[in-house]
Amino acid sequence: MAKKKAAKKKVAKKKVAKKKVAKKKVAKKKVAKKKVAKKKKK
After folding, report:
1. Residue 34 pLDDT more than 70?
2. ∠ CA 24-27-30 to the nearest 5 degrees?
3. For the whole model, what pTM was predicted?
4. How far apart are the first and last CA of the chain?
5. Furthest C-alpha separation in the chain
6. What local confidence, expressed as pLDDT, does residue 1 receive?
7. 25 is in which domain, residue-wise?
8. In the prediction, which pLDDT does 6 show?
């Protein structure tokens, strides 16, 4: 049972890591949008 729980925790950590990567991608998109907005203002 302990081994199965440990395996589930590892999977959970991987999911969290993927979410963090997704958030970074979204953040990059937001930064890109801001840059485009600045160009349009000029």
Report:
1. yes
2. 155
3. 0.52
4. 62
5. 62
6. 65
7. 1-42
8. 84
